[in-house]
Design a protein that fits this description.
The complex is a heterodimer of chains A (613) and B (127). Among the domains of chain A are: 85-190, 2-Layer Sandwich (Beta-Lactamase); 305-423, no CATH class; 432-612, Histidine kinase-like ATPase, C-terminal domain (Heat Shock Protein 90), CATH 3.30.565.10. Helices cover 52% and strands 19% of the residues of chain A. Chain A has helices spanning 11-84, 87-91, 93-106, 140-148, 187-195, 261-268, 296-299, 301-390, 396-427, 439-457, 476-493, 528-531, 551-561, 587-595, 601-612; strands spanning 110-117, 122-127, 150-152, 164-173, 177-186, 204-209, 239-245, 253-255, 275-282, 288-295, 435-437, 459-465, 472-474, 500-509, 514-521, 565-571, 575-583. In chain A, the strands form four sheets. Chain A has a five-stranded antiparallel β-sheet. A five-stranded antiparallel β-sheet of chain A has the order 6-10-9-7-8. A five-stranded mixed β-sheet of chain A has the order 12-14-15-17-16. In chain A, strand 7 and strand 8 form a beta hairpin. Chain A starts with 10 loop residues before the first helix and ends with a helix. Chain B has 127 residues and is α/β, with parallel strands linked by helices. Chain B has five helices and five strands, in the order βαβαβαβαβα. Chain B has helices at 13-25, 36-45, 62-72, 87-95, 108-126, and strands at residues 5-9, 29-33, 50-54, 77-82, 100-103. In chain B, strands 2-1-3-4-5 form a five-stranded parallel β-sheet, with helices on both faces. The relative contact order of chain B is 0.17. Classes of the chains: A alpha+beta (613), B alpha/beta (127). The interface between A and B is medium-sized, with 23 and 21 residues.
């Protein structure tokens, strides 16, 4: 059976394989990593921003409590004075001044203290600006305090030209019905309280009335008494957190539980500076809001930093995986490609060996069948000779011509016999007698055989033999045949050249553990087309009658049989070099062989194979 | 010198005939048969000194015939004629007691030489 060649695996299928490897590796590692990374990133940012905005809201609530406590304290002070002193007593200028002094000793920032009767007339006053006799009947706070008992007014500039607000309490009186004690407090005192809680570069805490007017001075933008642009109408419930769009406050959004994804992503990726986080908490009386706000990016800056580190690490590891997996994939693909090529080479060798084996069987049969008729022809020529010799009447000239022709026939029979003998040699697969052979001595012997031929062809034979080569366990007779073939071919290759030469070299191959013999000629070289068919049986470029086309294929099968390798290199016009590699046994294996000289042939074969592989 | 009595065993009629003819002309007493069975029959009825035995024959092959001949008449020398010159077949022949072998197409003078030598050996062993 002649071996069929495996279909060539083209380069495109390797790049397809490479792509498959890379896509597989990336899909199995990068994709889950990417997913995991982003999920944890989003979850973490959700969790952290929620916690931070909750904290921010609590800061607003805390500030509100401070303000409430402050106000309650002031109210109770005033209430205490009103309850413990009679209207008549306080009407006295010296008494109210005493009270004002005591009050300011205990709690600062009161700018004045006034007693107002139920008709709205100020009857007594202590403080910087005496506004005795002023009628307050129409004022908002008078109506409120009359109605509710306590009134904390909105901030006003008033006469002191300093922002202030007033606390008024109503005190019942049997005689008068009721009277009112009213104190004015500088807003500054409130500001100094909440100002302490400011944070960061852009953080500020302030109080704003329900109509949007600042009740304390914001640290950064706006001023007390001015109307703010805060979207107070969006403030829902007692407290809350919102994302404030400074440029367009109506587009601000309240945060119910967690900050929407869009805003969370914007922390890491380019948030506009006009965005702020805002927390508010509502006072019950008066209707004020304590507001804390800070630049969105500054507030979440730490998260942003951490997120960037996480994302950078994530993408760096993805990049590393991609690089490593593509390098690995490339390496694997190359490995597979190399293995494929090796397999293909082995396949080719196997198919050649099969071809040779089948040709060998055929050759043996053919040789056998041809030898019989050849024997008949040979005996026939002898019979003819004998018969002619008996005949007396034949002319001498005819006898000579006939004998001449018979000799020609004999010559051709010998030629045929030579061909069939070659065929048989080729097909012979018997185990040859293995002995330790000195390659150099074989080469010298063979060169001796062909010296005469070389001389007559005008070809110079040169031997370059490396001394002290290890002896090879092989078949001397078969090696002689191979070398004879190669040297004969080399001499023939120089035909037509005036100064041809054949260089025979032997040397040690330490790496592959063997001996290399090369035979180089200075002939015309071998065309590429012929290189592939060189070792095929019956392939010859010699003229008919000169070569059987079996020499090289016999040499090939012998070298293979001996566990070696035969290769050829050729350069057109410069000649060809045939190299034979023959493996040798290590000292250890040699000893083992000597000791078990009577081991079976199979065992020896195994050993030889083990050395070859 | 006394010429040996020969038995030629070869299935190729022409070759058998030619060899017989040529050797008779040389003065040998020659009998030709075409298979192993006839050869075994012949040696029971006639006396031979040397047998020229083709290795490859239909029916009983050369090596088998050799075994039988040597079993019954170990004194008769046998020269194997082989179409395939291989150490293998030769060794097999020697194993079963063949004196020598020659390959086809054989040179008649070389064959004659081998016949002479075989005959001499036979005489020597007998003597």
């Amino acid at each position: 059976m002649l071996g069929t060649r495996e279909p060539d695996i083209s380069n495109t299928s390797y790049s397809k394989l490479l792509r498959g490897f890379i896509v597989g590796a990336v899909a199995c590692s990068v994709f889950p990593l990417f997913l995991l990374g982003w999920i944890s990133f989003l979850n973490y940012s959700d969790f952290s921003t929620s916690r931070m905005s909750e904290y921010f809201k609590n800061a607003a609530i805390d500030n509100r409590k401070i303000v409430e406590l402050f106000l309650e304290d002031r109210v109770s002070n005033i209430k205490l004075i009103a309850a413990t002193n009679s209207f008549d007593y306080l009407k006295e200028s010296s008494n109210i001044n005493d009270m004002f002094r005591i009050l300011n000793q205990r709690v600062s920032h009161f700018t004045n203290l006034a007693v107002i009767d139920s008709d709205g007339n100020q009857v007594a006053y202590a403080g910087q600006f005496n506004l005795s006799g002023t009628d307050y009947t129409e004022t908002e706070w008078f109506q409120e305090v009359t109605e509710k008992g306590v009134c904390i007014s909105k901030v006003a500039l008033g006469f002191p030209k300093k922002p202030h607000f007033s606390i008024a309490v109503r005190q019942s009186d049997d005689r008068e019905g009721f009277w009112i004690l009213r104190a004015t407090i500088e807003t500054q005192s409130l500001e100094s309280l909440i100002d302490m809680t400011k944070s960061g570069e852009t953080g500020e805490v302030f109080v704003v009335a329900s109509n949007g007017v600042y009740q304390t001075s914001p640290r950064l933008h706006g001023a007390i008494m001015e109307k703010s642009s805060l979207p107070i109408d969006l403030f829902k419930g007692d407290s809350g957190v919102m994302i404030l769009d400074v440029e367009n406050p109506s587009r601000s959004i309240s945060i119910e539980e967690s900050i929407p994804l869009k805003y969370r992503l914007s922390i890491t990726f380019s948030a506009p500076h006009s965005r702020q986080i805002l927390a508010y908490s509502k006072l019950k009386n008066p209707e004020w809001f304590v507001v804390a706000k800070q630049d969105f990016l500054e507030f979440f800056g730490d998260i942003d930093h951490l997120n960037l580190v996480i994302l950078a690490l994530l993408h760096m590891s993805i990049l590393a995986i991609v690089i490593v997996s593509s390098l690995t994939a490339r390496y694997m693909t190359r490995l597979i490609e190399r293995r494929d090529k090796e397999a293909e080479k082995l396949n080719r060798q196997l198919s050649r060996a099969r071809k040779l084996a089948s040709v060998g069987e055929l050759a043996a049969g053919v040789a056998h069948e041809i030898n019989n008729p050849l024997a008949v022809i040979m005996t026939e020529t002898m019979v003819m000779r004998e018969l002619t010799a008996d005949e007396q009447d034949i002319r001498q000239q005819f006898r000579d011509d006939l004998f001449n022709s018979l000799s020609q026939i004999d010559g051709q029979i010998q030629r045929c016999a030579h061909i069939t003998q070659s065929l048989l040699n080729f097909s012979r697969r018997i185990s040859s007698a293995s002995e330790f052979v000195d390659i150099n001595s074989v080469l010298k012997d063979v060169t001796g055989f062909v010296e005469r031929k070389a001389l007559s062809c005008g070809v110079k034979l040169s031997l370059n033999l490396e001394q002290n080569l290890p002896e090879l366990k092989t078949d001397r007779f078969e090696l002689e045949q191979v070398f004879l073939n190669l040297i004969n071919n080399a001499i023939d290759a120089n035909e037509g050249k005036t100064e041809g030469s054949v260089n025979i070299v032997s040397r040690l191959d330490q790496v592959r553990k063997g001996v290399i013999v090369s035979v180089a000629d200075t002939g015309t070289g071998i065309p590429d087309d012929n290189l592939d068919r060189l070792f095929d049986p019956f392939f010859t470029t010699k003229p008919p009658g000169r070569g059987t086309g079996l020499g090289l294929s016999i040499s090939y099968s012998i070298v293979k049989h001996l566990g070696g390798e035969i290769t050829v290199q050729s350069e057109l016009g410069r000649g060809a070099v045939f190299s034979i590699f023959l493996p040798y046994l290590s000292e250890e294996q040699k000893n083992a062989l000597y000791m078990g000289e009577n081991t079976t042939k199979e065992n020896q074969d195994e050993k030889t194979q083990a050395v070859n592989s | 010198m006394k010429k040996p009595r020969l038995l030629i065993v070869d299935d190729d009629k022409l070759l058998n005939h030619n060899m017989t003819w040529l050797l008779r002309r040389k003065g040998y007493e020659v009998t030709g048969v075409e298979d192993g069975e006839s050869a075994l029959a012949s040696i029971e009825t006639q006396e031979f000194d040397v047998i020229i035995l083709d290795q490859k024959m239909p029916g009983m092959g050369g090596i088998e015939a050799l075994r039988e001949i040597k079993k019954k008449h170990p004194d008769i020398e046998v020269i194997i004629l082989t179409g395939a010159s291989s150490v293998e077949s030769a060794v097999k022949g020697f194993e079963f007691g063949a004196y020598d072998y020659t390959t086809k197409p054989m040179q008649m003078d070389i064959l004659e030489e081998k016949i002479q030598k075989a005959f001499e050996r036979k005489l020597l062993l007998k003597g």
